[in-house]
Write a structure and sequence with these properties.
The protein is α/β, with parallel strands linked by helices. It is 47% helix and 15% strand. The protein has helices spanning 7-39, 59-73, 91-101, 112-120, 136-142, 171-174, 194-217, and strands at residues 48-53, 79-84, 107-111, 151-154, 159-162, 165-166, 183-187.
């Protein structure tokens, strides 16, 4: 004999079976997210550039500039993604460290302490030895930019190299963050897109130097 459905039987059913409905909802959400993650088209690492910025800043300014560069000067790159990470000593540094040690990111804009720590561990490209970038040292010095603080000793190699360029005197790059700390622009070693990472790095520095020189004249 079928049980009649009324308020009492419905209440009793929900009392003992509510977890089944919640579980079903959770399962549906999980399955939907899994399907979305699997089926959503993703740009391969070798066709994009991820730019991590460990600071607060006007992300729309960086996004607009980088998209313009991508369209006009880096046709092989399908995406350039500026990613701002909240700078704090708990969750922020954990997120930054996770990205770096997971082999993610191509360019990094970091405060002095973080830059020096990662550079000493050999996680950034030595700019002074990299073909196509080594002349940037001379260009920056010609504009009166002191690069001494960008040189660090690699703890594993025991060698001292230029791992980052300070951006406080580099025009628009200094306006990409609200940080009062000196920021350093670096390239991660073993970038998945090394040629375009180096090309973007050069464009950033040269555009900033050009803007700085123009502002000095006016």
């Amino acid at each position: 004999m079928k049980t009649k459905i009324n308020k009492q039987t419905l209440r009793q059913h929900l009392t003992y079976s509510w977890w089944k409905y919640i579980g079903s909802v959770v399962l549906v959400i999980f399955a939907w997210n899994l399907i979305y993650a699997v089926t959503t088209p993703r740009v391969p690492p070798e066709e994009k550039l991820d730019f991590f910025i460990y600071a607060y800043g006007p992300d729309e300014v960086a996004t607009e500039y980088l998209e313009g560069v991508r369209q006009e000067q880096l046709p092989d790159v399908r995406e350039i993604n500026p990613m701002y990470i909240m700078p704090d000593d708990s969750s922020g540094i954990m997120v930054l460290t996770t990205h770096i040690f997971a082999g993610e990111g191509d360019l990094f804009l970091l405060p002095r302490d973080n830059f020096q720590s990662y550079a000493a561990e050999g996680l950034f490209l030595a700019l002074d030895t990299e073909d196509g970038l080594s002349d940037l040292e001379e260009e920056c010095q010609a504009h009166g930019i002191n690069l001494e603080r960008g040189w660090r000793k690699n703890q594993d190699l025991g060698e001292r190299h230029l791992y980052g360029i300070p951006t406080s005197s580099l025009g628009f790059l200094s306006s990409w963050t609200y940080s009062s700390d000196e920021m350093y622009l670096s390239i991660r070693v073993n970038s998945a897109n090394p040629d375009n990472a180096a090309a973007l790095y050069r464009l950033l520095i040269e555009d900033a130097l050009t803007e700085t020189a123009a502002s000095d004249i006016t």
